[in-house]
## 1
Amino acid sequence: MSLVKLVDLPSFGDDRGGFVAIESSQSIPFEIKRLYYIFNTSGNKSRGFHAHINLKQIAVCVKGSCRFILDDGFHREEVILNSPTQGLMIESLTWREMHDFSEDCVLLVLANSHYDENDYIRNYDEFLGSVKNKTIEGHVINLLKCY
Ligand code: T46
């Protein structure tokens, strides 16, 4: 299964210009509790390098472009975001890195919970440990279901 899940956002552009309307829990699969945006970026300054324990997010490059790397501890995939009508779903327990920002990039991020520094895993080995624990937990639950 691909790590890169792109969500088509409801787009109502016409000859007056582009137009996208995003509704919480409707056009995106969670309730929006927070949004933030990244701008004034530069191509040689990468960002991210962390995972979240619980947070789910959708990232939309409303202007310009940037390259995302997503990593679930087993696979690593990358995608270039350059469309204001598509959002990249970023699931919990996914390592993310953002590279190659264009100078005009404006990256909007919609999040399903408020800001919590305790939800961040900023060390890659720690991230791999959390993935391993979750995988073992999943196997145990499946085994218990068999009995
Ligand atoms: C993510 C990627 C895509 C806040 O005070 N409130 C907030 O809601 C956020 C997101 C950040 N901050 C503070 C924490 C740092 O002092 O703003 C500063 C910049 O955050 P950070 O270095 O984590 O930014 P990025 O671009 O590396 O990562 C951000 C998000 O933090 C992260 O959740 O998934 O964008």
## 2
Amino acid sequence: MLIQADRLTRVLTTLLEKAGTETDRAQVCADHLVRANLKGHDSHGVGMAPSYVRWIAAGKLFPNARPKVIKDRAAVMVVDGQFGLGAPVAKETIEMAIARAKQTGVACVALRDSCHIGRIGTYGEQCADAGMVSMHYVNVVGAEPAVAPFGGREPRMLTNPYCCAVPRANGDHIVLDFATSAIAIGKLRVAHMKGEPAPANVLLDADGAPTTDTSAFFTSGPRGHLLPFGLHKGGGLQIICELLGGALAGQWTMQPGSDREYGAAVNNMLSIVIDPEAFGDLADYQAEAEAMMDYVSSTAPGQGVDRVRLPGDPERESLAKRMRDGVPVDDNTWKDILRVAADVGLDEAAIAAIA
Ligand code: NAD
């Protein structure tokens, strides 16, 4: 079904409120999830809300917990997410990072122990909207590993995302934002639900043989696992995210001595936020960057490509289309939302009235 973004946001806000979340935090989270759908990343959109409600019920996610600064020295801050609702916790942490970078030129902020913070590009965009360049190294813990390191046939990590965002004066920021696995687990699940094969070179079966059969991953038996993207280069970045997001920021990696059975997806994130004004010559920098972006965008497109895009362009195209046409929500996702809604006392008629 197609549903307008504002109505979908109201449904999720009400759902999260009913699950015990204060209204302003529920709104931030609902907005974050719906914007992920609007930007084309359904894997990190409204389909995550049922998990959040279940984690709240299980006492693993504390929906009203605030980020707490536990170390503060010059440009460095360490923030405890206190297993709070990730979207508001990370948004507030990045607000602190931006304020610090305005004072010191650069801020390096570690967010640890936050429940799932969703689409990392949102935080890159938050920095870029404030005129800041940013890099975000993130690891994922709290569950069994599902992604092998490059060259391996056993899983050692989860999908460790990375984001780098560079502001542009016209608001069309450069936002590079991806999982370091060859495919996001949510996207593999979508293929599985539709009965479609996985792309080649993203999945190994339980014996370590390459496969496109998604049931090798979604099985109750011995499970296959994902590969990192980009051979040794993506595999290297996957490890850097584990070291910077996991070990340095979070002091919680996927090594077997750490808790793998927390029972909710937990993110640790190292964010480096840079104020380009601190370098001086802002206008010269911007002119040079724009000239280079124009040069890249004007490349003759390859076969089967309509035009060369910059990181962030596909999300802008999706946003324009889905704001106009509505957000597609598949039947399984909608049923799951209705199921948890019933658990918190919202029946189908109540949801229909909001939607
Ligand atoms: P993806 O493979 O769709 O890659 C997206 C990136 O590639 C964007 O920067 C996009 O602008 C750019 N891009 C895509 N097509 C392009 C083109 N033709 N030309 C130029 N640039 C192009 O992303 P993904 O790996 O599926 O990740 C999806 C989302 O999942 C991300 O937002 C990520 O932050 C999120 N994620 C979150 C977690 C978590 O634990 N919180 C874990 C993994 C992933």
